[in-house]
Design goal:
This protein has seven helices and 22 strands. The protein has helices spanning about 1-30, 165-175, 220-230, 235-240, 275-285, 340-350, 385-395; strands at about 40-50, 55-65, 65-75, 85-90, 95-100, 110-120, 125-135, 145-150, 180, 195, 205, 245, 300-305, 310-315, 355-360, 400-405, 410-415, 430-435, 455-460, 475-485, 490-495, 500-505.
Length: about 525
């Protein structure tokens, strides 16, 4: 297996090198077509995402003008045989972004894809870019994936002299099958200044753009936050090779936002929808390789089935929460909302996969007015939803659930033990925290005993280092999950920006005590 992975990694490196070389040769051979004014350009990188066990995947790219995106896929790098092709227009109303859903792809295969934009007005073809993803396995194949979050936060942007977004280069070297981004893709509420001073007196020098000079309020500014990330070469290279499962958290809109409690001078629509949130949501869906779910466009929560070993449940702890923060004498509170909670309970009970990963944008046991945990004691406010979920999982006999999250700007492993908990009607489970990918680092937070979490490992900045530690100090984190195709064992490893394995645990799958229930709704 190690040899096969090494060979695949070399092929992927060749892919991008050959792509760049081909473009250079084409420019020399046909100088009359090489001028940017003549040909549509790919503005930024290309991305794939939401790769599912039903043979589908999303492809995304952005043009520099109105253009028609052409996508071709092959199982061979030479593109000798084309197995799928599709078209989608990139138009001004979507800021020239385009994404499309490919279907009926073969299981467990390396898929090479190339993207080109043709000028809508003239038909002149543009450059081609090559990308890669691997489809979900049918059976018996091992899986590896990564997760993390929190990019370009606290004003720590792209310092080219310090390697830019180094975590993306390290994650690319891990050659995962896919990547879960746990939220805070951008910090729309934080500017990127030209310089920041480090404790030593050295200067951190950012690439700067007009859209990152102010806190985002307009749709163009929200979109500009996503464009900023595409300026980093590590970011572009990673996303060209690794499909992403994207969810969001607060900084895609504004700090600690809630649906009706966060707004600006633009106010609300007649239905009570915040215009600020609506603009942020539109920019997120414009720039993410995320599928639309039927009539529910703009819905972030969804299930990604990745073969018989794994189902990933992407949840949304922002869009349906109460607006009063997690405090007060009122015992009512929610963070998932009734509809999403019912969906999650139903889909977990119906899952036939060995492992069920709940990808959450916030932890459930770390004390935070913005999240779930309030402090020691019986469930209060938002904790009631989590208690209901955990009890339903136990009643339905669902096993092998793991929670993954980011947001806290340090890395940790929490084991939830009902014997140590105030609320005890649940089976033990693990929660793993990672991040930041490229933002300020904080020290470990405080756990409460409502659900009995025990910190088995934690790593962040020390009190002496101070909070908001710059990325150049190396305390940037991501997690890796490996599932063995033969035994089904899951290995979770917490890693840092230099690819050091900081802590690891092997989880043996437990037998399911009941047959899966078939879900009636998606």
């Amino acid at each position: 297996m190690a040899t096969l992975r090494a060979q695949r990694a070399w092929t992927r490196r060749q892919l991008l090198v050959r792509s760049a070389s081909s473009l250079a040769i084409a420019s020399l051979a046909k100088p009359h077509l090489s001028r940017a004014a003549d040909r549509p350009q790919i503005a930024g990188g290309i991305q794939s995402g939401d790769v599912c066990g039903d043979g589908s995947a999303v492809i995304w790219a952005r043009a520099d003008r109105p253009a028609r995106m052409q996508v071709e896929c092959s199982t061979v790098e030479s593109f000798k045989t084309i197995i799928a092709s599709a078209l989608r227009d990139a138009l001004p109303e979507a800021d020239f972004t385009a994404k499309l859903l490919l279907n009926d792809l073969p299981a467990g295969q390396d898929i090479f894809y190339r993207v080109r934009f043709d000028d809508i007005a003239t038909g002149v073809p543009g450059e081609s870019r090559l990308g890669h993803f691997r489809t979900a396995p049918a059976a018996g194949q091992s899986i590896s994936f990564l997760w993390s979050g929190d990019v370009a936060g606290q004003g720590w942007g792209i310092d080219v002299s310090r390697g830019g977004y180094r975590s993306y280069r390290t994650m690319r070297d891990n050659r995962p099958d896919f990547f879960i981004h746990s939220g805070d893709h951008i910090y729309a509420d934080c500017t990127i200044p030209s310089e920041q001073t480090l404790p030593s007196g050295e200067i951190w020098r950012n690439l700067v753009t007009e859209d990152k000079a102010e806190v985002a309020h307009t749709l163009a500014q929200f979109r500009g936050n996503y464009k900023y990330n595409h300026l980093d070469e590590n970011f572009r290279a990673f996303h060209a090779e690794v499909p992403m499962l994207a969810q969001w958290d607060d900084h895609e809109v504004t700090n600690d936002w809630s649906p009706t409690g966060s707004y600006d001078e633009a106010g609300f629509e007649q239905d009570g929808t915040s215009r600020l949130v609506a603009r942020a949501r539109r920019a997120f869906f414009d720039f993410m390789p995320i599928r639309d779910i039927g009539a529910r466009q703009g819905r972030v929560y969804r299930k990604i089935g990745y073969g018989p070993l794994l189902d990933v449940f992407m949840i949304d702890m922002r869009s349906y929460r109460d607006e009063t923060w997690n405090k007060g004498s009122d015992h009512r509170g929610w963070i998932l909302g009734a509809e999403q909670l019912a969906w999650l309970k139903r889909e977990l009970a119906a899952s036939r996969a060995t492992w069920k990963v709940i990808a959450a944008d916030l932890p459930i046991g770390l004390i935070s007015l913005d999240a779930v945990a309030l402090g020691d004691g019986s469930p209060e406010r938002r904790e009631h939803e989590i208690a209901e979920l955990l009890a339903s999982i136990k009643r339905a006999g669902v096993r092998n659930i793991v929670w993954l999250t980011a947001d806290m700007h340090y890395t940790a492993a929490h084991y939830y033990d009902p014997n140590k908990a105030q609320f005890q009607d649940f089976e033990p489970f693990w929660e793993f925290v990672s991040g930041p990918l490229h933002a300020g680092t904080w020290g470990p937070g405080e756990l409460d005993d409502t659900f009995g979490p025990v910190a088995m490992y934690q790593n962040g900045c020390s009190a002496a280092q101070g909070e908001n530690l710059a990325p150049c100090f190396g305390l940037q984190f991501f997690g890796r999950v490996d599932i063995d195709g033969a035994s089904g064992m899951m290995t979770v490893t917490l890693k840092d920006v230099d690819n050091r394995a900081l802590w690891s645990v092997d989880l043996v799958p437990q037998p399911q005590p009941r047959p899966a229930v078939v879900a009636q709704h998606s």
